[in-house]
Amino acid sequence: MKVLYQTRYNIFTRKGGDTVQIMKTKEFIENRFSDIQIDINSDPKADLTSYDLIHIFNMLRPQETILFMNNAKAQNKRIALSTIFWRSTEFERQGQMGLRRMINRMIGYDGMEKLRGLYRYYIDGEKHEGTLMLIKQGYTKLQREILDQADLLLPNGEGEMELIRHIFKPSKPLNYLVVPNAIDTGIFGYDTRTERDIVLCAGRFEPRKNQLNLIKAFNGLPYKLVLAGTAHETQRKYFKAMKKAIQKDNIEIVDELGHGELRKLYGRAKVHVLPSWYDTPGLVSLEAAVSGCNIVATTRGTTREYFGDDAFYCEPGDIESIRRAVTEAYQQPHNSRLQARISAEYTWEQTADRTVEGYARLLGRQEPEVSAG
Question: What are the coiled-coil residue ranges (predicted)?
């Protein structure tokens, strides 16, 4: 079986959770199934002759995804779509900053995305057919067209599918298979030798991840907070606001870390907190949980689907809620039950097997066996 992965053009220059998902899925499928070859290509006009199916990632940039879809359909290829979908009107109206928040309150989600499309087309270099389609058809309509063309959806959770059904109201049942987010147990694990004395928040610095409210919450807490990440150039204003909000010396910001250094920080953290406006559920939260941290997560998205009653939840827009959840998590002993469950149920091996199950279903083939060794 030969599969082509297609996704946003800046997948490696502006890395995110989808970057990890794509690379780890490819790595573990190829390691476990010797007869499956996977290529990655962001060319919307690629020759697909040699591929059995096309696996496209990410509905959040429909101006690119629709071009991959149209190209695959024109060449009669079956399409799997990892939806990587979220939408939060609440976030756009409350969590965004400055002018963007004000415009969202006036013209709504689709209006804001059209404006962003115009900016991308005329100023930011995305002068192509897909951006024009977004401007003319609208964000939601273009995403609905993507859903209609996909042969199989691969969401990260049932909650993601519920949101898709709620927003797009499909006229027929959607063909889907849940493929969970996961951790690499070869990299992350519980180290009993370390002294845990900090609260950690790892991830890109941006309004959706909500580090600004977390900092405001920590200005009234006795614990040490370490924020590990980086801000894209488009989020410099947000990063500046984060630094300005720090009032005490119990808050430290460090650069984005490699796996080795991040593993050490997980080992020092009694709590990992990600108070996002929406998450599915956040790869760093899974990594932190398997590393022995108690988890504070947002109430929005698929977090409860993954963590159940084994995490502490906060309302992203409520600073007191964040403060309370962190305090409760810090005061509780290590949750070994959550650590064991993540290690057992959310690994890249399982993600690979589940994805290949989807491929076999799409192609009407028997599911290939895992390679020996």
Answer: none
